[in-house]
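Problem statement: downstream parser choked on a complex file, so we are re-checking the raw output for the magnesium ion run. The parser issue turned out to be on our end (a line-ending mismatch), but while we're here, posting the original submission so the record is complete.
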Amino acid sequence: MTSTPEQLAEQNARHALRMARKKAVIDAAIARATEERGLLIVVTGNGKGKSTSAFGTMARALGYGMKIGVCQFLKSRTDTGEEAFFGALPKVEWHVLGDGFTWDTQNREQDIATAERGWQVAARMLADPSFDLVVLDELTYLLSYQYLDADSVLDALAQRPEMQHVIVTGRGATDALIELADTVSVIADEKHAYRAGVKAQRGIDL
Ligand code: ATP
Ligand code: MG
């Protein structure tokens, strides 16, 4: 059914009013957000896109010439697309600190030793204000498996340089980590091609 000119005019007026109200709310929120400081961002959940999100933010930060440190825990492979690309950039310091997944190593003591060694690298970055952004990829597992002392990790995060941003990724972020974080995104697993038999694809999954 086509609208009459009067109905159209009324629809347009209603839309303009709704947009004006929305703009007022958004402007007020922008006016309130005046603080500038480093953020702790946690990207967790069972869906794909946690590390991808961190790498996307890295691209943004690099656009401003920021210095970035990356610690990849658990994973041991160094032939990923992300490392080939970002790891070669002068503003990026990239460390692969894993020993394979825990179900590969089947050795808890060895995993703990690897986790503690890796954490030393992360702790050094978290104490160094020259890093504008630190990415701690898959750190959540080291906390949920209790491979690292949670208090030391949370203290190092809380006491990092004021303007330093940190992104932590991995499933099952602990309540204490979520509590400390400024921004938390939980990615849901609605569907994944792997379950339809598609193997990990270069440039997409690794
Ligand atoms: P990505 O690195 O692709 O952003 P992610 O960081 O969210 O994934 P990880 O647990 O680190 O998730 O998994 C890394 C690998 O496992 C990737 O190859 C990814 O495609 C795959 N993967 C992630 N989520 C799922 C899922 N829900 N089901 C199956 N495979 C997954
Ligand atoms: Mg990941």
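For whoever reads this later: The chain has two domains: 1-34, 37-196.
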